[in-house]
Write a structure and sequence with these properties.
Helix content is 27%, strand content 32%. It is α+β, with helices and mostly antiparallel strands. It has 2 domains: 2-111, Aminotransferase class 4, branched-chain amino acid transferase, N-terminal domain (D-amino Acid Aminotransferase, Chain A, domain 1); 115-270, Alpha-Beta Barrel (D-amino Acid Aminotransferase, Chain A, domain 2), CATH 3.20.10.10. Strands 7, 8, 9, 10, 11, 12, 13, 14 and 15 form a 9-stranded mixed beta sheet that branches. Helix 2 (41-54) packs antiparallel against helix 3 (60-70). The radius of gyration is 19 Å and the shape is globular.
Length: 274
């Protein structure tokens, strides 16, 4: 079952001239709800506000979304998806001088895949390359065609994720996740730098903070996929799945390592159900 609100009203209807539909003009957030409580809500709201500001939306739109979320009848384990578009506009790319944003919120039931958390997943390197676009890098904007094209490359249900490279061949992210791994030679956890493309995930930022608090060196940089072949303790993350170990990437097999298990245990202890 899924419930939908548009601008605070229970409905699943939007205007056909909405710029989110016509141009992907907007941003979104996907928030895990555990025991009726949205997880890392301040971080999601902060990223939403940042994305809206980058796209030139009025400051009050993020505050309106926060008020909408406060009215939701949340219970149990659910997924909340927030979509904010620039609203109705005239034909053409030029944004309207006065923005009347459309705020769409959906709430659906959610179930954790504990088997993938425990046993790990199979992934592949995608052929499709992410274009370099620093102006929109890090944003969770509505145009996800790059991810759609990459995800269309496989139908095998045993493959859970695809690793995406940029136009220059550097590792960026998964189609739906951020990536981390441990470099045994350098003694550091590594994750791709997202200054030219990719999504700056809330869970990614949180795990970077956790690693630093645990005195584990973490480095953001540009890495070729060959680095993954020499690494261990490879895992993917996002706000909904938490952290999944990657046990197979193409023909390379990995053990679930101690850093992965440490982070999983910390995430479990952090669950906010108060």
């Amino acid at each position: 079952m899924q419930a939908t609100w548009v601008n605070g009203t229970a409905t699943d209807q939007i205007n056909i001239a909405d710029r989110g539909l016509g141009y992907g003009d907007g941003v979104f957030e996907t928030i895990a709800v555990i025991g009726g409580y949205p997880q890392r809500l301040p971080q999601h709201l902060s990223r939403l506000a940042y994305g809206l500001a980058r796209l030139g939306f009025p400051d009050q739109v993020a505050s309106q979304v926060e008020l909408d979320l406060a009215q939701l009848p949340l219970c149990g384990d659910q997924t909340v998806k927030v979509i904010v578009t620039r609203g109705k506009g005239l034909r053409g790319y030029a944004p309207p001088q006065t923005v009347s944003a459309t705020r769409i919120i959906t709430v659906a039931e959610r179930a954790l895949n504990t088997e993938k958390m425990e046993k790990g997943v199979v992934a592949r390197v995608c052929d499709y390359r992410l274009p370099l676009n620093p102006a929109l890098a890090q944003l969770k904007h509505l145009n996800r065609l790059d991810q759609v094209m990459a995800r269309a490359e496989w139908q095998d249900p045993n493959i859970s994720e695809g690793v995406m490279l940029d136009a220059e061949g550097f590792v960026v992210e998964g189609t739906m996740s951020n990536l981390f791994w441990y470099d045994p030679e350098k003694g550091e956890v590594q994750t791709p730098l997202l200054d030219r493309c990719g999504v700056k995930g809330v869970m990614r930022d949180h795990l970077i903070g956790v690693l630093k608090r645990e005195n584990i060196s973490v480095v953001e940089g540009r890495f070729l996929p060959s680095v993954l072949m020499q690494a261990n303790d490879l895992f993917m993350c996002n706000s909904l799945i938490g952290l999944w170990p990657i046990v197979t990437l193409d023909n390379k097999h990995y053990d679930v390592g101690p850093i992965t298990r440490l982070l999983q245990s910390i995430l479990q202890r952090e669950i906010d159900c108060e």
